[in-house]
Amino acid sequence: MKADGCSMEAAGKDKMATGSAARDAKSVLRQGLMDDMARLRRFSNRGLFALSLFIIASTVAWRGFTFLPTPQQLVAAMGTPPTPFMISMVLVLYTFSAIILSLSRMMAGVYHKSSFCHVGYALGFYLFYYVADALADNYWAVFGAGFTVLCLESYRIWTFCSDQLGRKQEQLDFLERNGRMPPEEEDSLYS
Amino acid sequence: MFERIAGRALVPVGIVVTGFLVVCFVLLYAAIKNVVLRDSVEHANNLAGIVLKSTRHAMLKSDRELNQAIIRNISEQKGVQHVRIFNKKGTVVVSSHPEEVNRQLDKKAEGCVVCHEKAQPITTLGSMQKARSFKNNLGADVIAITAPIYNDPECANAACHFHPADQKVLGTLDIGLSQEATLASLASIRLQMIIFSILTLVLTMAGVIALLKMIVLVPMRKLQDFAEKNEEGGTALHPPKLPYELDRIAQSFYCIRKRLDNVEPNRVNPSPNADPNR
Question: Which member of B2, B18, B20 has the closest CB to residue A95?
Answer without folding.
Answer: B20
